[in-house]
Amino acid sequence: MSRKNSSPAANTSPLEIPTTRRSWMKSAALLLGGATATPLLPAPDPTQAVPKKSSQDRIIASDTKSVVETTAGKVRGYTRNEIHIFKGIPYGATTAGKNRFMPPVKPDPWPSVRSSLHYGSVCPTPPRAGWHQDESSFLFQWDDGQPGEDCLRVNLWTPAINDHRKRPVMVWLHPGGFATGSGQEMLSFDGENLARRGDVVVITLNHRLNTFGFLNLAQFAPEQFAVSANVGMLDQVLALEWVRDNISNFGGDPANVMIFGQSGGGGKVTALMAMPAAKGLFHRAAVQSGSFLQAATQDESTKLAAAVLDELAIPKSDPAQIQSIPFERLLNASIAARQKAAPRPPGPPDYNRSIRVLAWAPVIDGSILSSHPFDPQAPAISADVPLLVGSVLNEFLTATDRPDAFSMTDAQLAQQLSERFGEHTKEVIATFRAESPQARPFDLYSIIMASSVRGTAVKQAQRKAAQSKAPAYLYWLTWQTPVLDGRPMAFHCSDIAFVFDNTERCETMTGGGPRAQALAYKVSTAWLNFARHGDPNHPGLPKWPAFDSATAPTMILDDTCHVCQNPDAASLKLIDAVG
Q: Which of 216, 424, 469, 518 has its CA 20 to 30 A from that of 134?
């Protein structure tokens, strides 16, 4: 497959590629973000710049409108362009105090109508390194929200309420590894356009992260903290139970729920597919640049938990003290402990060794998660769930905040790769060059360093297809953004705006306009049809075959979409052997 190049940078001064651990950590941290009878959606109209909407282009917020009954009480939202929107609805009680590191519980009922107009608290997370890099901040436009432990909240967009319709439900799990992020973090997560275009209900949510969601205290207090290592995943199970119990009043179908997520969100989807507690709560799954096939082990997670207790000077014989300290102190201690006990390896994240990079992650504990989610095989518990999986071309290694990147020479390329591949460097360059003959040195460097993300997506599709129960569909988004002279390339998280049909809302990522909108129609329609039927095919795309290990059919998502058979088989085989 020949892959297109980004536009050359105007500045051709000598290239400076960061090679220190600190530089790479900063770069990676920026991004570590039942079928119905309804027919397939029509082919997208690439000439239409924005989705159609009502002439009543306005917001209506009223004490008496957009009111829905939930199991905990009534909630009041608002409408924007006739889409009902609810934000910050509690699906669980606060996780502070005695509830810290414990399984989530349902919220206490409220007696009157609860106003649900604004996003709720987000789980406390470390400071975002990206705010110190101007181009990245421009690109992503992050909203990091207000931190707090009362953070178990859902946000919801729906075309209608209380109408007894059964619309597909699309539940988004946000990126950020298992350590950062929220359901409001990026503009691309807004569900209004997707709800309108597909006549679906869209949900985003917050849950516990990092030390709050994945601190393994089981070895120190097995009775009290038996499942503390996975409470962040149990939060998501509780959110899916909230969907099951409440979504009918919001116009959704509890028997047709799709979970989808990108990066760490894709890892959460992968983990949920292997969790007995989540069985039956979702019926489709999509993993976007997040095929983390393994979970953390008891030894790895216990070592990190011990380091956190040491930072706090809490004796391991009495870990319950950790429930009463201020969350700010706990967060700072976890940052320090992670740097000592589980430092991030230099370089872009290697998804074949992703847990060592992430540190905070679901843990194999014998009850909540009994084995690695997709290693050595796909989980039998979700064999009947169709899977949509893929990645983007350039992922973490782009030229954002590196104006001279495209001046890289062949000699510099070889020098950079030798630090990773040693004596195999020439073979790696030659193999990838044969698949991308027009790529400039930096383009090739980026594709090579993103290959572990692509490779794990292929493996996940292979292992899913091997079950012969439900289909898997594989994609590769190669679309290059025009902003910043094309230097961000097909960057990690770039696919989200297309999936949510938010390329206009995310114009700093996409450039806006008809070119981006045309692809957004094709991609969002594929995801909508997958949510409705478990099949992403629609008339706006060429025939998208289910994955087959012999031919590895891959839908290439770009200005011109097409299917390639085994587009990078040689390079992925080589990386598995030498990487």
A: 518
Q: Cα dihedral angle (69, 71, 77, 83), rounded to 10 degrees?
A: -80
Alpha carbon 429 to chain centroid, angstroms: 30
Positive or negative CA dihedral for 80, 84, 86, 87?
negative
Give the residue among 99, 94, 91 at the shortest CA–CA distance from 71: 91
Give pairs for 85-88: CB < 8 Å, separation 24+.
85/155, 85/156, 85/157, 85/192, 86/116, 86/154, 86/155, 86/156, 86/250, 87/116, 87/117, 87/118, 87/119, 87/120, 87/153, 87/155, 87/156, 88/116, 88/117, 88/118, 88/119, 88/120, 88/153, 88/155
String of b and e for 178-187 (b: at least 16 CB within 10 Å)?
bbbbbbbbbb
| Polymer length in residues for the chain | 579
Decide if 260 contacts 173 (C-beta within 8 A).
Answer: yes
Contact 408, 446 (CB under 8 A): no
Q: How many CB atoms lie within 10 A of CB 228?
A: 29
Please identify which residue in the block is written with the tokens 């924005």.
Answer: 50
Rounded CA separation 51/56 (Å): 14
Q: Within 13 Å of residue 163, how many CA atoms lie on the same side as its CB?
A: 13
State both tokens at 241: 């139970």
Tell me which DSSP letter residue 489 carries: -
> Residue 22: is it exposed, middle or buried by C-beta count within 10 angstroms (0-12/13-18/19+)?
exposed
Banded pLDDT at 463 (limits 50, 70, 90)? very high
Q: Mapped to the 3 state alphabet, what secondary structure does 436-450 carry?
A: CCCCCHHHHHHHHHC
Cβ atoms of 533 and 518 within 8 Å: the answer is: no
Query: Distances from the Cα of 366 to the Cαs of 218, 269, 360, 369, 372, in angstroms?
Result: 12, 19, 18, 6, 11
Residues 6+ apart with CB under 8 A from 40: 529, 533, 537, 538, 539
3-state secondary structure labels for all residues of 279-311? CCCCCEEEEECCCCCCCECHHHHHHHHHHHHHH
Strands (E), 175-251: 201-205
Token pair listed for 178: 């298992």
Per-residue DSSP letter, 87: E
Residue written as token pair 């082990």 = 297
Residue 413 has pLDDT above 80, yes or no: yes
Instruction: Select from 100, 94, 121, 93 the least CA-distant residue to 325.
Output: 100
Rounded alpha-carbon distances, angstroms, from residue 496 to 139, 502, 509: 13, 8, 10
Distances (CA, A) of 5 to 17, 233, 276: 19, 39, 44
Q: Do you find a cis peptide bond into 376, omega within 30 degrees of 0?
A: yes
How many Å separate Cα 241 from the centre of its chain? 20
Which tens digits make up the pLDDT trace of 17-57?
A: 333 333 444 444 444 443 333 445 555 444 344 445 544 56
- Which DSSP string do the residues of 1-53 spell out, in sequence order? ---PPPPPPS--SPP----SHHHHHHHHHHH-----SPPPPPPP-TT-SS---
- Chain segment 81-106, per-residue pLDDT in tens: 999 999 999 999 999 999 999 999 99
